[in-house]
Amino acid sequence: xxxxxxxxxxxxxxxxxxxxTIVWLNAMFADAGLDVxxxxxxxxxxxxxxxxxxxxxxxxxxxxxxPPRLDEDVAALIxxxxxxxFVSEDAAELGVSTDRMIxxxxxxxxxxxxxxxxxxxxxxxx
Length: 126
Fold this sequence. Notes:
Elements: E1 2-7, H1 21-31, E2 35-40, E3 58-59, E4 62-63, H2 70-79, E5 84-87, H3 88-94, E6 105-108, H4 113-118, E7 122-125
Parallel strand pairs: 1-2, 1-7, 2-5, 5-6
Antiparallel strand pairs: 3-4
């Protein structure tokens, strides 16, 4: 089974956990042998920006023990063999240029989404 997993809600649980729970879940699916690719849209395209550093974030004076490294998490998913797509219009609206993104990510326009969805047995939206 081939799955396209869409992440639209950005920074889900990144304060409580050291990663985005859905990106982590997809990495676990890939490790378990599922043929899963990722599509980042809306604010989740920010995950592709190289070198993000939340290590100075503190809540109530307490620093995060394990700050998220979302760009590294997505790069690790690519290294596992998954393709990672992003909606190019969403990146443009957020001012995220491709030269700031991690390597090997693939842009897709909103009008190309139906064609992309048709390539998968299932499309999951988080």
